[in-house]
Specification:
The protein is α/β, with parallel strands linked by helices and 321 residues long. It has 16 helices and 7 strands. Keywords: DNA-binding.
């Protein structure tokens, strides 16, 4: 599309009439959609684009101060380096893609283009080209979500949180939400399962660059403490998805190689009493006249072992200081 932009932007210098330029733009509409309306940024091409969209009066320059963020914006993370790079591009080439907004009271609500809006402000722009939509608040929420999904640049949990908010706002089932977002019901269900991670787990998954498949494998561990240990192991060893799935499977099956040793719990005190009795019997067989005295109350069992001193330190062993 870059070459197309260059061709359109240069038409104003070729002496073409507005009619010819409009015809050129219309030929590209099927392939590029409304993108052509912001490809024409100077010369006669800019004026021609205004003529093309004059009937609907959709594309206008709007003061940035009048545009407020979309409350349904699924993106929560904006990387400073990317914004600085985008702002530099806007300074040099202008805003190639207009912001998508809708009218609200005496201002406008952003539907799509939060990164571009932030970059425009960093670049020092006062106004920006905007495409005004007549959509409802619910439609705005859907468009904000789908625009980010189609770009495939939302983080795992941003997309999951966005879907959850849409479901709560619409009061619809996962299946209905999936239909509106153009996704399968299973895909939506898998996204929502990611919200079972704690906030700290989410931060570690994102910062370490683990994929959604890594996360879904770890979710098989329902115990959070075990899951956090597994997450640390996966990050430390830099396991790929297949290795992570195998590691989780071993944890679930109690494989000895996972170092997840369980401490045996013995609740029958008779086992310990028998152990003491066995020790006394062994001492007697060795010629030591040891004895054990056992008494029992309502609260406890008392066991006393008596060994004659003359035999306790026989054989050259020393008395304790």
């Amino acid at each position: 599309m870059g070459n197309f932009f260059e061709n359109i932007n240069s038409t104003g210098n070729l002496g073409q009439s507005k009619r010819e330029i409009i015809f050129c733009i219309r030929q590209k509409m099927t392939k590029y959609g409304f993108a052509v309306c912001y490809a024409c940024t100077r010369g006669q091409a800019k004026e021609a684009a205004a003529v093309l969209f004059r009937d609907k009066s959709k594309v206008v320059e709007i003061d940035l101060d009048r545009i407020r963020p979309n409350p349904s914006q699924p993106r929560r993370t904006f990387h400073e380096e990317e914004l600085l790079g985008l702002s530099q591009s806007i300074r040099e080439n202008g805003l190639l893609q207009p912001l998508l907004v809708r009218k609200t009271g005496d201002g406008f609500e952003l539907i799509a283009g939060e990164r571009r809006l932030r970059a425009c402000r960093i670049a020092g722009l006062k106004t920006a080209a905007c495409l005004i939509s007549d959509c409802s608040p619910d439609q705005s929420a859907v468009m904000a979500m789908t625009e980010n999904i189609q770009r495939s640049n939302l983080e795992l949990f941003e997309e999951a949180e966005g879907i959850r908010r849409l479901i709560e706002r619409w009061h619809v089932t996962q299946e209905e939400a999936a239909s509106r977002l153009g996704k399968s019901q299973s895909a939506v269900a898998n996204k929502l399962r990611l919200l079972r991670f704690s906030e700290s787990e989410r931060e570690r998954i994102v910062s370490s660059g683990l994929s959604e498949r890594h996360a879904r494998a770890l979710l098989r561990l329902e115990d959070q403490r075990l899951r956090e240990k597994a997450l640390s192991f996966v990050i430390e060893k830099k396991l790929n998805v297949r290795q992570t799935e195998e590691y989780v499977e071993k944890l679930l099956s109690g494989d000895k190689n996972t170092n997840q040793k369980k401490t045996p719990v013995i609740k029958d005190v008779r086992i310990f009493l028998n152990t003491i009795s066995h020790a006394i019997a062994t001492m007697k067989q060795s010629g030591i006249s040891a004895q054990t005295l056992q008494s029992e109350t309502e609260e406890y069992i008392e066991c006393v072992v008596r060994i004659p001193k003359t035999q306790a330190y026989a054989g050259g062993s020393q008395k304790p200081a």
